[in-house]
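Progress against Task 2.4 (sequence-to-structure conversion) is shown through the following example record, which the project officer requested during the mid-term review.
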Amino acid sequence: LTAYHEAGHAICHYYCPTQDRVSEVSIIPRGQAGGYTMALPEHDKSYVTKAEMNEEIVTLLGGRAAEKIVLDDISTGASNDLERATKIARSMVTRYGFSDKIGPIVYGRDEDEVFLGRDYNSDRSYSEVIAGEIDAELRSIVHGAYDKAVELLSGHIDQLHTVASYLIEHEKIDGEQFERLMTGELSADEEKKPQAPEKDGAEAPADDTPNDNQQPSQE
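Structure tokens generated for the chain above:
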């Protein structure tokens, strides 16, 4: 399950052009996470575009989409992904004005500015009608990103199986290995050939080369 979940994240990263390259994928548990997919930025960014935020949500939902496609079931492993995806979508609509329907207006406070004991919803300064429109836009963004993740993974199902199989066998993939898996240069069942161990106490082979200090044997 974890192998397909992380493979789903990684492959969505690969096919979303605005996202950073995958640097590592692992199914080794770390903390409460069963695995992780890491993508390191190649350069610093001072701003983020609407397309980047949309595709970030696609990559976050890639794990859940992979579970559904391959196993026809979903797990609680995507809970943090869903939380992050929803937060990004809300920021797009209420903070950055990225919704064509809602418009370039900031609604409510930044979630980080809500004081202890005050609920975010109770602190809002807009009507129930606007709140309903915001919720509808959030659903539209997240559902659209999920559909995109399903489309990407369904269209590259062989690569999904390949990456997941390699993870099951090796537990971890670095960025170079991932690129080679995606291009077909590395197969899922390829393993590192173990080096033959040296035998302890093995005698060195005899050297038949004459030594300059030795005299040839006389017959």
